[in-house]
Amino acid sequence: MSKIKEYSGKIVYIGIDVHKNTYSVAAICEGVVVKKPFTQRASPALLATSLQRMFAGADIRAVYEAGFSGFCLQRFLEEKGIKCFVVDPGTVEKSPKAIAKTDKIDSLMLASHLAAGRLRFVRIPSLEEEFDRLVTRTREQLVETRTGICNQIKSRLLQFGHLKADENWAMSEKRLAALAASKEIPAPLKEILAKLGKAWSCVNSEIRAIEAEIRAKTDVNSTKIDKVMATYESAPGFGLVSARTMAAELGDMSQFATAKQLYSFVGLTPTEHSSGGHRRLGNISRRGPWRIRRILVEIAWRAIKKDVGLAHLFERIAARRGKLKAITAVARNILGRLRACFNNKQHYELGFFEGKKLAEAA
Q: How far apart, in whole angstroms, are the C-alpha atoms of residue 302 and residue 168?
């Protein structure tokens, strides 16, 4: 057991590799590994007690990678007086000489990087923000489930020759009723389709209920998130659900000091490969929340049909680099324009950004 006089007044850096059932923990103080990586049961209370007992009197600073466990561990340690940070796994430097990867190695690596100041921490959302995100993220999961059930129904119809491979077929309650009434479909197949159809209808009704809940709660004079939603909805291509999702995921973007930080967080910053006097930009980094990039790209396709300036931007880049890179550029442009709207405390207006440099507006 560590003695109080050994760590009193010192800073101890803790690296934690978090798993469902266990934590792997390592500690560094004054450049020395003072606690070799060890494994303990995954319990925030047990971890806090162990760290405070081993390093009594020390300024304990811990870090772990963002993942399935969310921010519960971070919040608990902070409540117990242990400063705790969370990092994006994609931003943690990996040693090119490493020949093995284990939980204990990872925990020691995190402690080393924390002690050396080589980590970029993620912003910890409030509980209110996380609860707001639950609504749209649950809808997103249900939509994926509904799509999966629809694909199962299609595969059964294709399997027995009741659907052409190139047929443009969309699921609906009307379609389900038609399948149930069809005299061409054999009884055994119809029975299975009825079960799948019932599951599809159940999930579909829950999706509609969530959308109705979002619609009912939308009031620009009520909560902060609804006021932020109004700005997103003012931009071309946004709908109720996409505006709610962006409001919950990014808020008013005030946490980003510059547009560059915002693009980097969302993963819309081009990778770069430069040598000597040559500078080459590659594909976007794709780091950060994928759902935001997906929504922005979907919005960009709709926006170029409504905003002339964005349409011209798309056509200009598409002619040189192709449609996929062009629509990504439009998505990034829309994000920058929205940030400018929040900074200027105004809604998006078609034509407002024409003739202006995005850097000046944002």
A: 21
How far apart CA 273 and CA 168 sit, in angstroms, is: 43
**1 in helix, strand or coil?**
coil
What's the CA gap between 33 and 110, in Å, rounded? 12
136 Cβ contact partners less than 8 Å away, ≥ 6 residues apart = 214, 241, 244, 245, 248, 249
Report how far apart the first and last C-alpha atoms of the chain are (Å, whole number).
Answer: 54
- Alpha-carbon distance of 127 to 139, in angstroms, equals 19
Pair 190, 180: CB distance under 8 Å: yes
Residues paired with residue 84 on neighbouring β-strands, in sequence order: 62
Task: Indicate the burial class of 33 (C-beta count within 10 angstroms; 0-12, 13-18, 19 or more).
Answer: middle
Residue 279, strand partner residues? 274
Mean pLDDT of 62-74: 94
d(CA 15, CA 48): 13
Q: At which residue do the structure tokens 């050994």 appear? A: 6
d(CA 20, CA 201): 34
Give the integer Cα–Cα distance in Å for 231 and 238: 10
Q: How many residues does the chain have?
A: 362
* Helical ranges in 168-307 per DSSP H: 173-181, 187-217, 224-233, 240-250, 259-266, 290-303
SS (H, E, C) 66-124: CCCCCCHHHHHHHHCCCEEEEECHHHCCCCCCCCCCCHHHHHHHHHHHHHHCCCCECCC
Separation of alpha carbons 31 and 314, rounded Å: 52
Percentage of the chain beyond pLDDT 70 is: 86
- State the average pLDDT over residues 90-98: 72
User: Do the Cβ atoms of 30 and 42 come closer than 8 Å?
Assistant: no
The tokens describing 334, both together, are: 């829309």
Average confidence (pLDDT) over 228-242 = 93
Sign of CA pseudo-dihedral 108, 110, 112, 114:
negative
pLDDT digits (tens, 9 = 90+) for 119-142: 989 889 999 889 889 999 999 999
